[in-house]
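Input for the complex:
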Amino acid sequence: MPDPPPRRTSLYDQHVALGGRIVPFAGWEMPVQYTGIVDEHQAVRKAAGLFDVSHMGELRLRGEYSSHVVDYLVTNDARRLADGQAMYTCACNEKALILDDLIVYRHSQDDWRIVCNASNRDKMARHFARAAKDHCEYDDESDETALVALQGPRAFEVLAATGDDARRLGELKSFHFREATVGGVRCTVARTGYTGEDGVEIFCAWDDAPALWRALIDAGRPLGLKPAGLGARDTLRLEARLSLYGNDIDETTNPIEAGLGWVVKVEKGDFIGRAALMEIKARPLPRKLVGFEVTGRGVARHGYPLRDLEGREVGLCTSGSPGPTVGKNIGLGYVPSAMAEVGTRLLVDCRGKNVDAVVVQTPFYKRAK
Amino acid sequence: MSELPADRRYTKDHEWARLAAGEVTVGITSFAVEQLGDITLVNFDVKAGDAVTTGKSFGTIESVKTLSDLFAPVSGKVVRVNADLATKPELVNEDCFGKAWMIAIAPSDPASADALMDAKAYGEFLKTAAHE
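Predicted:
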């Protein structure tokens, strides 16, 4: 079957007007950059950046048993969430392999929102719909829901500059959310993100996104805000060592080896993948996802082989690029546990050239609190 | 799009080649720079004295987002490479038609550069490429 034509978010015209370079991504036409990846990256680290992430999927589960359905499908403990609180989690299959990484939002005991990756939307929609069947209400709200991310140390100043209601959003705690009006648009504002900076992600109705976007751009420009594309999103998340589904994690990897053991709560009760995860945790890990710095002349890229100093292939680079803030070429990759120690030297096979690298502490970048 | 210098020839790989004093100096065009974005690394696989072949890679250029090959526009012998780019890859973003020249080649056939596009033809080529 031929691929369906790429889709556009309701912000497409804004991106074009702002000079965004549009590329295909996970079935969507999205801006990869406006002024330049490094420029946008630095704007997010130093002031603020605005991202369109409306392509992501939003699923809704409601009803008396919705909390049980959600909790059964995710590895983290949804039952410890309060109303207005969110958490990062994996959803695994019964072999403990990662189906997707998600943010789960508890609106109330009987009302849950799940945000999944754009590339996994159909898969996760089927997964949640099947589990919800006969137990709770289920809606795929992706087509009606826009999502923008406002990230950076000045994100809350930008919000406050849009008007009255937004002034109080600075009181939100990390991974908490609430309803608000921003730039005249009714929305849900969550203190979450994917850049390693403070900031928010804002949900609104699909057709309201342009008004919200323009209000944030106008209020933010004097504060140094820039629109930011997928390119900067990738370099920002890599420096913060946030996993990218399809690169660092997928259905061949488990959360423990990926360094996501902190969102696996086997003690919480039964959930899909629990037995397999307990077995994995009971044994030494054969391999681990590590961060490395390329010390030689080269840039590690997704898919490049990693080698030991004797030249034997020991793993693969899952993500790699220059890190604009850390000023080094950095990457993530799976290596045998014996080589996962910080300081271990390895080689990145950059298209036939073995370039020196060393395992380092992650995150590569951590913001000053 | 900045002006295309008229004193040189262009390739479909978005490189320029300028013949002067029996040498062909090679670089990448402003269109290529725009597509690549922020340049972070320029690596040459050749040094002075090495042979290069038309259409074959003589090095790579890395931007934040991607890696791209550098292709020899003509066959010949490398006369010199631009060592400045090893430490200052950002020169490519700043001055791709000038200071960020890549290599100079003594062409085995001095007429070979004539087969490439002139500025006008490359300008036309860009118009069609932009609509692909």
